[in-house]
Amino acid sequence: MSIDLDLKEGRSRPSLLSSFITPRAAAASPAILSILLIPGLVIVAAFFLIPLARVAFEVGNGPEGWGTYLLILTNARYLESLIQTLAMSAGVTMMALILCAIVGLFLVRNRFAGRSILIGTLTLPLSFPGTVVGFMVIMLAGRQGVIGGLTDAAFGSKLVFAYDIAGLFIGYLYFSIPRVILAVMASAEKLDLQLEEAARSLGASRFRVICDVILPGLMPGLISSGAICFATAMGAFGTAFTLATDIDVLPMVIYTEFTRNANIPVAAALSIVLGLITWACLAAVRSFTGEGKSLPVRGGA
Amino acid sequence: MRRTGIFYAQLGLTTLLCLFIVIPIVMSALAGVTVNVFQGLSSGLTLRWIFEVWDLYASSIFLSLWLAIACLFVTLIAGVPLAYVLVRKPGRATRLFEELLTLPVAIPGLALALALLITYGGVSGYRSSWLFILTGHVLFTLPFMVRSVAAVMSAMDMKTLEEGAASLGAGFWRRFFTVIVPNAKPGILAGALMVVTLSVGEFNLTWMLHTPLTKTLPVGLADAYASMRLEIGSAYTLIFFVLIMPLLIAMQILANRGSKPARATAEDK
Fold it and tell me: Is residue A268 a contact partner of residue B118, using CB atoms and an 8 Å limit?
């Protein structure tokens, strides 16, 4: 194969000199390119596309048929969990964006001792499994947690909120911060300081500069990291699983329907809806911010 | 720069956020080496819980490391050539394929695991082996390897490099292994670190795909939190931190090295 190719290229390139004058890609033949694609194609087709199609069909096999999808809107429990998950994810996203915009801008604009330690700390939980994040919430706000200990010492009553919706919120915030802060810092580094100076020299107050110059500059970064944050929160399972809350977030409902109730069509339908929401949210934001075009994969090629 | 009240307010908020992240980690690390958490540190320090975790979960920890290495191997074989094609043949079909490839990252792990279970859950030998979990991990980590390698490949002048090698008579495979792969090494290294870290920590997929005989480290963690003493759960978390920390630090060093020139010029201004 490789000898064959050598000959072909030899023919299309008469001399060294001409290859300098008319630079032509020393491209691999289509045959070779398709060989390179095979492992990836097989993995994606066999373990992603086929299973995805199977799940979609599994929904139709239920007693309700394709009406199973409608169940999500008509069954109070499923609908409630969907709304709750959406509200929770949106709330966490807003909170993470506000906190990270302030802190991220601060970390990019100022140089001081210990700065890199602060950055390192804030990005630490990036690869913690959801279960560990859940455990961290228990350490913070559980029965033996720091907050409980402090309030016990101060007011004589333990404040414990790890196992209800506030605990879940704290957990989601915990794993959202690293994702958002990295994106905010990346876009804050690209902000044009001259624009701010111009605005200030024209008499704009600090507040006006923030609203009219800094925030619009950060916006693409905030929108795309917010989308990632939202999608991650929608699908987060480990944290809710560890806290064993009786709050029905969508992934927990899918899990119970599948394992405890063996209600596979409903679990499949809910999974597909959940997958569609997260994918659509990421895809919409990518086309909106143009992030897709600047993805490194397509960058220089 | 003049330090104003706003500077200190922002510094305060930043410190608060850092404490929010660090305090539980320190607490759990301490709890893992405390004789009795309910009595606090005054009950003394011990390594007993660490040893107990080791007795209970060593096999899970080793399985996780093995899975991470296997996952790295597969993503290297499939991902590096894939990245090459994506960079070298841009177009509508490539974009579509790339979208497809990244889809498993956008879709919740739970849904992905469900799809695998419904499709291949009946294949008994496969379902009960570690290969089933490997499938999930590869699906989830492959996009990260491809992204990272393709980023480096599109930043280097692959066309000129390849032409140079071709003009000297190197065939495609020779070019691929002696020119392209060595030049893409920073991306491959970054992707490899990412794949290993993600695989070691993956829970959402793994919890659904595991069997009692194929428990990974994060599955063991969930198990320890649910059924063991607080000290054992903490000690196990401590072991997880010790394993994952070097990977995270290596990733940060690599990222810093990559962006150093840009940062230096920004500071010069």
Answer: yes
Instruction: Say if residues B209 and B136 touch (Cβ distance below 8 Å).
Output: yes
Whole-prediction pTM: 0.84
Structure tokens given for B5: 């009240």
Rounded-to-10 torsion of CA B181, B185, B187, B188: 70
Asked if A39's CB is within 8 angstroms of B15's CB, the reply is no
For residue B59, how many other CB atoms are within 10 A of its CB?
12
Partner-chain contact A23 B21, CB within 8 Å? no
State which amino acid sits at residue A17: L
Chain A residues near residue B215 by CB distance under 8 angstroms: none
Q: What is the ipTM of this complex?
A: 0.85
In Å, how far from its chain's centre is CA B198?
2
**Closest alpha carbon within chain A to B253:** A120
Q: pLDDT tens-digit profile of A172-229?
A: 999 999 989 988 998 888 888 888 888 888 888 888 888 888 888 888 889 888 988 9
Give the helix, strand, coil percentages of chain B, each rounded to 5: 85, 0, 15
> Of the candidates A43, A54, A136, which has its C-beta nearest B139's C-beta?
A43
Query: What residues in B contact A43, CB-CB < 8 Å?
Result: 74, 78, 138-139, 142
Cβ-Cβ contacts under 8 Å, B103 against chain A: 48, 279
Token digits of residue A184: 């905010």
Structure tokens at A223: 């929108």
